[in-house]
Amino acid sequence: MDLLLLLLGVFFIILGIIGSFIPVLPGPITSWVGLLLIHLTNAIPYNWTFILTTLAVAILVYILDYIIPALGTKRFGGSKYGIIGTTVGLVVGLIFLGPFGIIIGPFIGAFIGELIHDNENSNRALKAAFGSFIGFLFSTGLKFIVSSIYAGLFFSKIWEMKSNFF
Fold it and tell me: Which residues contact 95 (CB under 8 A, 6 or more apart)?
């Protein structure tokens, strides 16, 4: 049973890192599930403080993921259309441009979203798209960092208790 929980934990850790870049998956929360699974094994002692602290951080980052791009867009004079365009641009960019789409897709999506909102002012749309893009990059980076830290914690706990697993 421990081996199954370990393998599921690895799956959720990897899925969480991938989820840092894909809007549908909550990266840090998915990675946290991996941490929880490893603590449910007999090999790793259950630590409530650790589990609750990492859960609180994952939930905070999940909430900030929705706030940060909106703040970036608002700070640069954007609208709700820019935020929606950022998300749509990310998905379309990933499908058609692969990893490069993670960078270019949100910016183009935000720009098009702002042009739909106000098609007379392309300078304002460009500025708002830049703000949305900066917010998106910051929130994605934050999710990636937290998910990577969770992966490091996960594998360090396995390393410490490897004799109990194998």
Answer: 101
What's the pLDDT tens digit per position in 17-47? 999 987 778 899 999 999 999 999 888 888 8
Contacts of 49 (CB under 8 A, 6+ apart): none
Alpha carbon distance 14, 30 (integer Å) = 9
| Token representation of residue 20 | 């840092």
**Which of 135, 159, 121, 132 is closest to 38 using CA atoms?**
159
Contact 155, 32 (CB under 8 A): no
Residue 16 has pLDDT above 80, yes or no: yes
Q: What is the pLDDT of residue 68?
A: 83
Tell me the three state secondary structure of residue 75.
helix
> Has residue 90 got a pLDDT over 70?
yes
Q: Distance between CA 137 and CA 71 in Å, rounded?
A: 12
pLDDT tens by residue, 47-63 = 899 999 999 999 999 99
Rg of the chain (C-alpha set): 19
Q: Closest Cα to residue 140, out of 81, 90, 92?
A: 90
CA 62 to chain centroid, in Å, comes to: 8
